[in-house]
Fold each of these.
Amino acid sequence: MDVVFLSRLQFAAATMFHFLFVPLTLGLSVLVAVMETRYAQTEDPVYLEMTRFWGKLFLINFALGIVTGITLEFQFGTNWSLYSAYVGDVFGSLLAIEATAAFFLESTLIGVWIFGWKKLSKKAHAAVMWLVAGAGNLSAIWILTANGWMQNPVGYTIRNGRAELTDFAAVVFNKFGILEICHTVPAGIVLGAFFVMGISAYHLLKKQHVKFALKSFNIGLAFGLVASLVLLIEGDLHARHVTQVQPAKLAAMESHWETTANAPIHLFAVPDEENEKNAVQIGSIPGILSFLGHHDFNATIQGLKDFPKEERPPVLLTFLSFRLMVALGVYFVFATILGVILKKKLMESPRYLKLMLYSIPLPYIAIEAGWVVAEVGRQPWIVYGLMKTSEAASPIAVSQVGISLLAFVLVYGLLGILGFYLIITNAKKGPEALPETA
């Protein structure tokens, strides 16, 4: 194992662990804001119960997101210093804006929300929660804009041996980044919705806190259905853009080897990275990949053979991750549609409630699989077409990265155990009795 591999493994482990908390922060903050707005409008104490209960889970999740996220930015200096030196003028400016204009704002507003219950009016306090949700999603937007630039670099020039920013607007309005935003934010809402529905289903199965759980479930259901449908529509737009700017990634997503018109998709495949002739492909449907990429069943799709072997992404991992993400995305649509059908008789539908309870982990899995497609499918480039990952790692000893990787696994493992213990314990306990003065 070399420095590049260990650095990639460390960054992947840290990022994927951190991203267990980020999308729930994005989605749950919006749902809590909706619940508190309903309380401000109706003064129904059940909505106050909901706001406090889901708000508490949100805060636990947010704290874990902060702790696990801070170390990520340090790795650009410790593990990826050559990358930072080469593209820091572009990438660093986006991270700086995220920290100063979004993250600090979000943290400050959360403090106001926590300590402002008795100091602000109901409507003002609800407005603060909307600002928290907006700042959290704004933070994600800047991070996704930075990642979108890595996927499709624009608005720069190479000067003095490094990439320098020349058109900030081009970077901000980069179509790849916008599509990532339009995919990741609804994915966070889907996660938040299934989180709320799953925990509400638990209490409904126990026949406890019934009014609270039904109202919570219905809010989660509405947002889950809309967001999951948005993901399907955006996914189609994203696939077409990937076809244009990252054709090798599309070919890997579909284990597509030969450049051909009327290109098929394969319901299942076992690609052979060394010899494409040995690839196993099952259930081919002609023309669907051409339609996916160009909205034309007869369009030509580039195959992996068109690209040098050293510039092909890992096919098996990209292919399987894409299949998993899409399958779960379709499941979310059907699960929420079924929920709408059963909405008025949830208490008489224990099988559906158990299904939703057991579905809590699925959006996490889908989101992680999506990021595997995005990041592994971009390889061997750290900035697509501009800088390879092998050129970006810091010139440090293998032992240094190995020790820090082990430390990350141990510390993050303990944080994960503690964090999920707190979330699960509080989720099972349910809402606490309301204080006399809200």
Amino acid sequence: MRFDRKKLERYRELLQTTDIQAGYQEFLRLFRFLRLGLEKQLPDCRVQARIEENAMEYCYFQLTNSCMHTKVLEVAGAFVHGRFPLEIWL
């Protein structure tokens, strides 16, 4: 298995010299708040309880309602870390 030692060292440096870890935890709190808010505002929808994280590339949660479910459709609230937008995926 190969890995880039310089990137690993840079990651350790960032963890030790910045508040990146605290910032990431704060982002997760905000994303959970958004998920819970949608769950309250859209009582007819089933909102996934768990936030899926993908190695800091993006994270998302899914929601659907009975009409979408019969058509095998789901909507996801997603956040793409590199570009920093909040997106809606179908």
Amino acid sequence: MPESRHNPASPPRAAITGAAKIALTYALIAGVWILLSDRLVQVLAPDPAWMTGLGILKGWVFVAVTATLLYYMVKRLVAGVANRKAQLRTLIHTIPDLVWLKDPEGVYLACNQAFERFFGAPESEILGKSDYDFVPKEQADFFRQKDREAMAAGEPRVNEEWITLAAGGARVLIETLKTPMLDQSGVLVGVLGIGRDITQQDSHSRERAKLQAQLYEAQKLEALGRFAGGVAHDYNNMLSVILSNADLALYQMGESRPERKYLEEIVKAARHSAELTTRMLGFARRQPSDPQAMDFNRAVADLLPLLGRLAGEGIELTWKPGPNPWTAWVDRLQLEQVLTNLVVNARDAIQGPGQITLETANWTLRERDCADWTEPGSGQFVGIQVSDTGSGIAPEVQANIFEPFFTTKPSGHGTGLGLAMVRGIVRQHQGALQVETLPGRGTTFRVLFPRAGTEGAAGTGQP
């Protein structure tokens, strides 16, 4: 129990002054009444027998008048106290926050209607009971611990806690302020609690943090894109010189020359580097984009031979076209880049035999669905789903998979631009992207492109 820092309180000066005035007034009136009434009795009743009777009557009149005055005074005082008490009760019950008062042992002394919703019981059934009568022991222990902390500190304590309202079953986040209550002599009489529903504020805070993270990500990608684009252009110019001279040397060199194999390796490496340049330009969004309305099933089916070769032997590539897909608004070359990158990633995640499945479907995203997607936007889309039976993605790296130049593959087996380019293409098309993965149970990528003729499709074009 905290040591009181308050001196014993004395009655207010106004109350003492008022009580003294009433007492003095009463004494003065009583004294005047006694003197005058006795003199009046002597005048009216010279006979001793009459004087005794009038004296008794005078006493009863005094008692009657005094009782009447006391009745009206006490009635007025009680009515005032009752009125103030009713106003205070109305005020407490009007407060939308949860308000309650416990004694030092955790027994409820009072609560308002908002708090009744928490326990799902009226105040009359809550008073005289503790948290252990209404909530699970773990939660009651938590409440009791916070009560003790406030009492030990001797000052208000704030904490946040998730609670489930018994009335309606809603789960809300409550910001709780617990304050020790002291009487006029400074003795601890209980703990006053006020709980405010901050579920919406918490949701807004998380949404604001998410938007800030998205802004930071966009700024970072923009800076990296500018850098990658500048480097890729200069690198591409140098590669053009290397390839031109190597091709010219090969053309002039005989087939039997032993040096020919070295030139072929140079050409092979240069062409591979040119592919890397193409990826960097795609990440930088400096490749021209030409989205067109196309039959999505046919577009994917045309790429199956290429995707099958990328998957390699021992991995089964399964194609499940969706029924009656909408016309998609997509750049054919960039669709090929998306699918090749996803299939290569799926292939590398599979150790030994496995399966990669391609599925198409129509999608309609609503506003409440967008939180589950990357680059979200509500509307109608045509989607491709790429699933594998590989090792999945570890939880600690899932947040980084779309980072440019981030890769978990061994050195020389990946540039870290594949998924970054997929995200860039999806963003350029105003589409949506989703990843589902579990370590040891495979990964599923869903990529959505706008349905042709929709608002999103109309705004898609070269950046």
Amino acid sequence: MKMYYITLNTQKEAKAISYDLLEKRLAVCTNWFPITCAYRLHGEIKDESEVVLIIKTKDGLREAIEKVISEHINYTNYIAEIDVHSINHTFLKWLEAEVPNIHNAM
């Protein structure tokens, strides 16, 4: 299993990307929530609102997921792939039922 941690500008973007991924069976579940981001840029420290999107899916779908994201936004964002080493059996069973094997999903 893989999880993706993605930063976006708005909840509307997160919802649109989530629904697109779910409809294309590239994810079994997504979560999004507002956060505050502090960062350093051009010698200044700034902060602003962001939205984090978490995608729960199978291994090997990063390219397809990034393609979906790029269809919804046109700015540079953060996409981190997180390996999941342990997961409860019932969730894994749900994931297997809802997200087809890689060769079927692409």
